[in-house]
Structures are given as structure tokens and as C-alpha cells.
Amino acid sequence: MSLIHEIAQGNTDALEQLYKQYKDRVYRLALSLSHDMHLAEDITQDTFLHVQERARTYRREGSEAAWIIAIARNLTYDSLRRRSREVTGDIHSFEPDGMLPPQSAALLRQDSGQPDPASNLYFLDLLAFLTGDEKELVCLRILAGLSWKEIGRITGQSAGACRKRYARSLEKLRRNLVQPSP
After folding, report:
1. In whole angstroms, what is the distance from residue 73 CA to residue 30 CA?
2. Which band of pLDDT confidence, cut at 50, 70 and 90, is reported for residue 2?
3. Is the pLDDT of residue 77 over 80?
4. What own/partner pairs with CB < 8 Å and gap ≥ 24 does 119-128 have?
5. For the chain, first and last CA: distance in Å?
6. DSSP letters for 61-79
7. What's the rounded mean pLDDT across residues 169-181?
8. Cα separation of 32 and 94, whole Å?
């Protein structure tokens, strides 16, 4: 029986285990899409509350990870839409103060403790070169670690289309990384 099905039966230990297993991936995704550490923390908590509330509706069509990441993605976009109504300006603009706090930088590492491609402090700045859809693909693949099939289900596109758009997004990032010689 999956952890989500155990949660549906009221097993709080299963919820705690699921939280420990996915909290970093959910946080990294929410942070990369929102560029707001506090909002990402709130979304992480809200994601697991939604998992608990909706565990009975879970269908084994996809992986637990894809279902949880889809919830986090939707909550992030809902929060950004609400915020954009409250504040004028571009919801995707981000003015970094130069560095992430150590605990946030640590969350951008994989469980092995080795630097992840996303662990560089400028990773969030690099995403600014991408459109919202491009950013989402890169985050779902790199930060959430989802398969092309899972990403396709979440975005409503074929796995092949996602793979092509991802390759174009990475090429766009590479072009923006190339700096002119002095």
C-alpha cells in the first residue's frame, strides 16, 4: 500500500514519512517559481495539508511524486495570482539581494550532500532569462526530478513536446551564460 493510501486511512506516521521524503523537492520547486522563501515555506506546508485532505482522491495513474509536485505547482501559481492582484507589477520579477540564506542554499542540494546543478546561488537569477513556461519545465525536470511522462501529465503536453521545449530552454540558458570577451 502506498503512503498516500495510508494517509487516506488516517495514518499520520505515513504523512510524516511522505513529508520527509518530498519536502525538499516541493520547497525547491515553490522557491524557484515564486522567488520568495517565505511563500515557498508556506506552499510546502500547504502542499502536505492538501495531500492529507485529498488523499482519498489519489489515483495511481501516475507516481506519488508527480501528484505531490502538481499540487505544489498549482498552489504556487494560485498564490502568485492572488499576490499579483494585491500588488501591481510583474509577478515574475525578482531582485535578489545577492545571496540566499544558508538553509535555503542547503535545500538546493540533493540528499547526497553534493552540489546539485541547481545549487549555485545564481540559479534563480538564470531562470529570469526564461519565460514562465520554460522556467516551469526546467524546474519540474531539474528541481522536482520528474520524468518526461510525469511532466507531460502535469503540463498537459506530450512527453516529446516537453523534452523539445526543455532542450530549447537549456539552449536559451546557455546563450545567456556566454559572456562577451573584455
Report:
1. 7
2. confident
3. yes
4. 123/32, 124/31, 124/32, 124/35, 124/94, 124/96, 124/100, 125/94, 125/96, 126/173, 126/176, 126/177, 127/32, 128/92, 128/94
5. 60
6. TS-HHHHHHHHHHHHHHHH
7. 75
8. 11
